[in-house]
Specification:
With 364 residues, this protein is of the alpha+beta class. It is built from 16 helices and 6 strands.
Length: 364
């Protein structure tokens, strides 16, 4: 056990994934502070209205201090995104945000707290070693300790476990009552986003709200545990994306969808250049694919190049060499690309399944 803990504490890895996370978290922190500024202008200072502080009244921020603090959070968010003293900026920004939640319990929302918590955990990682404004000039060593990443992974599962577990033991959630109330509150927003009225009416029936409630509970518990095991991690991440996109479409959850999708990067293996994507450089389609993969490869997981004369084939535009060294083409190649590319990850499961079906048919 002690040896396992020592390995966990001494583990190190490449930091490109953490750098992308830092930029995304910085943008979300800026959005959160900017929205709070807008609310200050529209509604006014929360202390002038009914509020429920979790700390003594004398420690609650005054209007002037609250305004200065929001300004500081905006500046810190920009600093985080640029990578200039990013870790101290993440630490201070998260503490300021948590202090605001302590000043007024009514301001607490799960997505706001989750963002601040992930920002705090990210400050414990070497997220400032890559994707930074001045990183190239300083030739920063993009390797660092990864123990903070394990804390992030644990926290993601804790949030799912807490949410799914509380719903499991709540009879109003299990029978679909809470889901029905959500459709009443936020159904119009889904319709405004383009969801047909008849479909929303169908989802709001007692049978469907009950099934949706049970599906939500199962999904959260599956994601909570599935993320922690390598064999189920890809499936859990894929279903998590589907799950949160459905919530985003049918409910008002502020930044929660984006915060969670960014936190999924804690589970990305930092295997820089472990895959090789070769394309036919003699055709414009091949060149286009090469540029596209380079553009979408935020985590630097591919070594992209035009193939050599020995590799060239007229049948395929591209060839993918997987992490374990096997070379694949066609749908198998695109499944491998989607698996390792954030913006294409939703296509991974259907492409992977279809490629397997076609492979079995070809052998039959």
């Amino acid at each position: 056990m002690i040896k396992r803990i020592e390995e966990w504490l001494n583990a190190s890895g490449r930091t490109e994934v953490l750098g992308v996370m830092r930029i995304a978290i910085g943008c979300l922190l800026f959005t959160q502070a900017f929205d709070a500024f807008g609310e200050l202008q529209r509604v006014g200072y929360f202390g002038d209205n009914f509020h429920m502080p979790l700390i003594a009244d004398r420690f609650v921020a005054t209007r002037a201090f609250y305004t200065y603090m929001l300004t500081a959070r905006l500046i810190l968010a920009v600093i985080v995104a640029l990578g200039i003293q990013a870790r101290p900026a993440l630490f201070l920004s998260s503490l300021m945000g948590i202090y605001v939640l302590l000043c007024d319990k009514l301001e607490f929302h799960h997505n706001r707290y989750a963002l601040l918590l992930y920002a705090f955990i990210l400050a414990l990682t070497p997220c400032d070693k890559s994707w930074r404004l001045n990183g190239r000039r300083q030739n920063v060593d993009q390797v660092g300790p990864m123990w903070g990443v394990w804390l992030g992974r644990l926290q993601v599962s804790i949030i799912y476990l807490g949410s799914g577990g509380s719903k499991l033991f709540d009879p109003d959630w299990r029978d679909g009552t809470m889901v029905a109330q959500r459709f009443v509150r936020y159904g119009h927003e889904a319709i405004d986003k383009g969801v047909p009225q008849f479909f929303m009416d169908f989802l709001a029936t007692p049978l469907m709200t009950g099934l949706i409630a049970k599906g939500a509970i199962f999904s959260e518990l599956f994601i909570a545990f599935g993320l922690q095991f390598k064999r189920t991690r890809r499936a859990a991440l894929w279903w998590g994306m589907i799950f949160h996109l459905m919530i985003e479409t049918t409910s008002a959850v502020e930044l929660f969808t984006y915060v969670t999708l960014v936190a999924y990067a804690f589970f990305v293996t930092p295997d820089v250049g472990a895959r090789k994507f070769e394309f036919d450089g003699s055709r414009w389609q091949g060149k286009f694919l090469g540029r596209t993969i380079r553009l979408l490869d935020w985590f630097s997981r591919f070594e992209v190049s035009a193939w050599s004369t020995e590799t060239a084939t007229s049948k395929h535009l591209c060839v993918l060499t997987r992490r374990e060294g096997t070379r694949v083409t066609g749908l198998d190649a695109w499944a491998g690309v989607a698996e390792a590319t954030p913006l294409l990850f939703l296509a991974w499961a259907p492409t992977f399944i279809l490629a397997g079906v076609l492979r079995r048919r070809a052998k039959a």
